[in-house]
Amino acid sequence: MILTNRPRIQRWVPPLLLMLLATPAWTESPAVLHHQLDITLKPDEGRLFVADRISLPDGARARYLEVVLNAGLQIVATNAKAVSPYGIAEGNRRRYRFTLDPLADTLSISYEGTPQAPRRSAPQAMPGVVLDSASVYLDGAGAWYPLTGEHPVTAELTVHHPPGWQSISQGARLEGTTTTTRWRSEEPQEEIYLLAAPYRFYSKPGPHAEAQVFLRTSDDPLAQRFLDITDRYLDLYSRLIGPYPYPKFAVVENRWETGYGMPSFTLLGSRVMRLPFILTSSYPHEILHNWWGNGVYPDYASGNWSEGLTSYLADHLIQEQQGRSADYRRSILQKYADYVASESDFPLREFRARHDGASQAVGYGKTLMFFHMLRRNLGDTAFRTGLRRLYRDYRYRSAGFEEIRRVFEAVSGRPLAAMFHQWVERVGAPAIVLGEPQVRDLQQKGFRLEGELRQSHADTPYRLRVPVAVTVADSDTAVWSIVELDSASTRFAITLPSRPLRIDIDPRFDLFRRLAPEELPPSLGQVFGAANLTVVVPSGASAEERDAYLLLVAQWRRQFPGIRTQEDILPLPENGGIWVLGKTNRHAASQLKRISAQFPVELGPKLKLGEEVLTEKDLSLVLTLRRSAVSTLAYLQVGSVAAVPGLARKLPHYGKYSYLAFAGDDAVNVTKGQWPVHASPLTLQLTDEKHERGKLPAEAPLIE
């Protein structure tokens, strides 16, 4: 579960500094600037006072130095000979040029004021700058310290804060009192973070790093759960990739419901921290970002690969360890099918950060599948070696897809340019069709299965290694083969020890591809991801119920701005995604009848979904139905009007599911699932009888 994007500093590189820095490219040996910051926070006044001493390394010493500082901060002292502001403020920033002694190795600046917040793209996101009586949040995008260009920084912070507060930054916590905290970050960083609030502080030393928890209210059991599991994840990823790169990992409770990953800490919302599944989903994802994203920095100009690789080695790896990786990959392909239309697709090299379902399906999902296919092509040993080499060679430096390619070519001895090009540079996904196979009896030599695989998409064929599983008589285990498909179509022949009963193409969803409609159960993702989305409101609803539904629509419009509404006196649209709201809706009875005819659901005093019988009171119910190839419908029946705000917030996060039930006014999920998929054009029975698929070869996890 990825809740929000990690906020990123918006880079500004002064032209003069680019000439001063000997090696501005992070992929080489960059010059590092050190900030010695003494900070006094005045949260009740919304102000801060900072003295910054910037150490300039050899090669970055010159007569002039340009910086950017928040426009709400005023410079009150400097050791420079002169300082000149550059024009009017640009957004929340102002540029300055400092005239230095030619031999100066430091620039000292003192400044104070109320920093202005940068503009955030999402209206529901937390502010970019927070400095009030409840908490402090400052990052590079807020320009609260002098930004000196796109190159790494180290820092030491002495933070003076109100009594009883705690401050947090990256790196090591040197000391802390009731009014002062010191932090030191010796690792080259993209930006400097500063957080503070009246936190309750917990810590636990460990073999890889100190685990820390900062909570807004005391909760010893919650803190202990995070402290205990942190060691496990740090050990897992240290064994898989290499040493953890920071002296601590901290969990920080936020006022806003975020899931941000920063160097050596994560900023989680209060509700997020207490979700029962968070410790085995989003939490390892945020920890792993300290290897990919905050350890090896992605070269954003050539594509943000770190989200996909982090998802693969966190979310996917955990499912793999539990034997559910194929289901997880199918959900990735399902999200791509649900949310990504041709006009919203883009190549991986253009991904920077997610901002909607389509960008997440490509930037996270397609990149995840790319690394899975790379692993399958090279084998686990070479893939693990490549991960370790990538981390070793590029720690605290930037790497793009080109650098990743060279690393994996070096460890495998195989050319990978064609593979990287087709998945990183191309838009879209292949679609595979299975032609009618033929079975030949070879008498005493067994059987031969002959067939054809085609790529049905219109553009240039992909080069694919297609897994094929054949179920045979007298064996519980399927015969596993790889068919090389590098043209529009190819013939294949598989020799078998006994009569083939069934053939399955890509049965474990190892390829990134367009799923056929028959492979997909109806889902909320198909409704939310439709180009046209309509919400049908019951005309006979009470005023209270109608107001609740309209608020639900208003909240969804923030994420899906094209939603339109209509009353149930009108016929349902012929295409697009459709929400039918309320059991008094005139369309409810007919759609429920269609759902009950296709899927195992019974409505009555006791609700039955599949094999599960639900008896909770005040149940809210969501059911989906594919009406046609171009339309999917979702029906929502609420247990109480008070549950609607919670449902409005939660339902977009359940995109892969076909049915859901929530209990009570707080809309607590009590069951969820997908309707069964009964047919796939990539599965064919080869006899008159129906046969279950034979067991597939064991899929060993990348690391236990």
Shape: globular
Query: What is the number of helices?
Result: 14
Rg is 28 Å
Q: In which order are the strands of the major sheet placed?
A: 4-7-2-1-10-13-12
Query: What is the β-strand count?
Result: 39
Structure class: alpha+beta
Mean pLDDT: 90
Largest sheet: 7 strands, mixed
* Oligomerization category of the chains in this entry: single chain
List unreliable stretches of 5+ residues: 1-27
Question: Percent helix among the residues?
Answer: 10-25%
The N- and C-terminal alpha carbons lie at a distance of: 22 Å
State which percent range the strand residues make up.
Answer: 25-35%
Structural features, described:
The structure is a single chain. It is built from 14 helices and 39 strands. With 704 residues, it is an alpha+beta fold. The strands form 9 sheets. Strands 4-7-2-1-10-13-12 form a 7-stranded mixed β-sheet, with no helix packed on it. β16, α2 (220-240) and β17 form a beta-alpha-beta unit. α5 crosses α6 and α5 packs across α7 (357-378). The radius of gyration is 28 Å and the shape is globular. The model is unreliable at 1-27 (pLDDT under 50).
At a glance:
The chain has 704 residues and is α+β, with helices and mostly antiparallel strands. The chain contains 14 helices and 39 strands.
Any chance you could write out the topology, listing elements then pairs?
Blueprint: H1 15-20, E1 33-42, E2 47-55, E3 64-70, E4 73-78, E5 82-90, E6 93-99, E7 106-113, E8 130-131, E9 136-138, E10 153-160, E11 166-168, E12 172-176, E13 180-189, E14 194-197, E15 200-204, E16 210-215, H2 220-240, E17 248-254, E18 259-262, E19 265-269, H3 270-273, H4 282-288, E20 297-298, H5 306-321, H6 325-339, H7 357-378, H8 380-394, E21 398-399, H9 401-412, H10 417-425, E22 432-434, E23 438-441, E24 447-455, E25 464-472, E26 479-485, E27 489-496, E28 500-505, H11 524-528, E29 533-537, H12 543-559, E30 564-567, E31 576-581, H13 588-598, E32 601-602, E33 607-609, E34 612-614, E35 619-628, E36 631-637, H14 644-650, E37 659-663, E38 668-673, E39 683-685
Helix pairs in contact: 4-5, 5-6, 5-7, 6-7, 7-8, 8-9, 12-14
